[in-house]
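Appendix C reproduces, verbatim, an entry submitted by the partner laboratory led by Prof. M.T., so that reviewers can inspect both the input and the predicted structure.
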Amino acid sequence: MKKPPVLTTANGAPIGVLQALTAGPRGPALLQDVQLIEQMQHFNRERIPERPVHAKGSGAYGTFTVTHDVTRYTHAKLFERVGKTTGVFLRFSTVAGERGAADAERDVRGFALKFYTEQGNWDLVGNNTPVFFVRDPYKFQMFIHTQKRHPQTNMRDMDMQWDFWSLCPESLHQVTILFSDRGIPATYRHMHGFGSHTYSLVDGQGKRVWCKFHFRSLQGIANLRDEVAADLIGQDRESHQRDLFDAIARGEFPRWRVCIQVMTEEAAESFRWNPFDLTKVWPHRDFPLIDIGVLKLDRNPENYFAEVEQAAFKPSAFVPGIGPSPDRMLQARLVSYADAHLHRLGVNHHQVPVNAPVSPAANFIRDGALTNGHYGARPNYWPNSVAGTPAPDPAFADPAWQLGAAIADRYDSTVGYDDFTQAGDLYRLLDEGERARLTKRIAISLGQARHEVQRRQLGHFVQADADYGRRVAEGLGLVSELAELSGAGALAGVR
């Protein structure tokens, strides 16, 4: 039999005896017992803040396999060919309940999916319903407060809930679903999932369409009546989690048929409802489901806290070919979900294994608590002209948006501006002594930079004022290069 590993401290030192260090068999514990102190200190910190919503969850790994060609709608690499498989992690959850809530309560269920694509992680954050309670993002936090506990009694309060709903008629569609026979799914395996929000898909030619994602359970739909759910809660508060884990463990891998609805930008302009309204569905007769693939879950996590509790899903995690829409709730969630993880898990939550992309990240985000420092000595700023550093690729640029009279795009902030006249005017206001001291200081400082940087910066000085450029060039010993710098592209060579 293989010998078990030796017990160690957190810093890897072997432990000989796992008993408190005391002054005699009946004496007090000693402060020098660092093994005991380390254990107690970590225990006091082994929980992290729970999610404000979707606190109680279950998760599993699996695959998404493309079954139908959708490259006419999107150039996203995970959809590039029929038969292609992408790894996923799916977290189911209740929404309103806290971390200790029962699985079989009447509540909306979360359906959050992380695709580990070769071009980064794509997070699709949805529910088991195609709509939501509100369409104005300002109401989101207000609504969640009504689903939690009364500030005085610390109890769930039906008056709060119905007071809010009665003042927000847009919630009626979701309320009807919640209190229908589908309000309590029998298991996580026997319910549909929805991306709910409207997203955009962009094809290889830069043409955009609007899209909704659907996950149709291939196990069928099964729900619980109130009395059955109440009895189940009395026996097992983790009924859905147990069912999911045990089914996967015995090889009964749950699957979902993955579909999309597609709406052109032209159709969106004339559709009878606002297609970006999260309280509305797109009728299937107008926009039929289009099959794109199959989702399968086939592997349970090894450690619940590390992989399920620390899993961070954020709708702002897009990949090329998939993007947002004018959906106001989605626009707000692009910020709020990412911010929640920054608070709950820390600035480097994307380095936790369950959240880490399979393709190495390359950017200028640095440091923070618990960073793994894998960027080494690469520059932490942009623009830069250091060889081998990450650079944007125009091939991945999204097409511009027409938003009313404005066109939303990533405009080059160095184009269309005069950045030299006022600097030159200021230089010409200086007296002879001030000019001499200014250019001397600049030459001393700029002289410590690379030659290519010196040349580029001299191009700026020359465009502001010829004398300004000449004096700095003299200080650098580069007067012979001034002629070719006049009018040169100031940002040539910038990555």
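The radius of gyration is 29 Å. Additional entries are available on request from the coordinating office.
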